[in-house]
Design brief:
177 residues; alpha+beta; Nucleotide Exchange Factor Grpe, Chain A, domain 2; 5 helices; 18% strand
């Protein structure tokens, strides 16, 4: 009797209390139960992680989709002003009014770009930089050294430190032949 008593005392409390109608649960059965419980916890944690990743991906896609919303709101007044300039010239048939209006809209447009850190790349009379410029032609010119930008065919822009579009430029080939 005393041997049985020692066995019961040395068993963990949860093992003695986890007995079934058939009697106390063996240590192997208890370990199997704990292993199964750990597996279930692992599966739940993995499912929660997968749900978190899916939710995060949906949020990122949503943010990307509407990332330029503020930019679009800033551009709409520019569009409105282009329409006003066209209406004004059609009503007055005054070309000077159209030129003035378009110049104002052009400046407004550049200000919107600048507000969003998209700035024009200065090219004219600069040394050719293949990171900022794309050469479309070369002209002989004795006034400016070789690879100096003589003319900007199309303006280039950069967003922060990345080139959105390089400036298309005409370069000096150096001395006149």
């Amino acid at each position: 009797m005393s041997g049985e008593h020692l066995d019961l005392v040395s068993e963990p409390e949860e093992t003695r209390s986890a007995g079934t109608a058939r009697g106390p649960v063996s240590e192997v059965d208890q370990l199997r139960f704990e292993l199964e419980e750990t597996k279930n916890q692992k599966l739940r944690a993995l499912a929660e992680l997968e749900n978190y990743r899916a939710r995060l991906n949906r949020q990122m896609m949503e943010e990307r989709k509407y990332a330029c919303m503020d930019f679009m709101r800033e551009l709409l007044p520019v569009w409105d002003n282009i329409g006003r300039a066209l209406e004004a010239v059609s009503a007055s048939h005054n070309l000077e009014t159209l030129i003035e209006g378009v110049q104002m809209v052009h400046m407004q447009f550049l200000e919107v770009l600048k507000k969003y850190h998209c700035e024009r790349i200065e090219a004219k009379f600069q040394l050719f930089d293949p990171n900022l410029h794309a050469s479309v032609a070369q002209l002989p010119n004795g006034e400016y050294p070789m690879n100096t930008v003589l003319e900007e065919v199309q303006a280039g822009f950069r967003l922060f430190d990345r080139v959105v579009r390089p400036s298309q430029v005409v370069l000096s080939s150096g001395e006149v032949v």
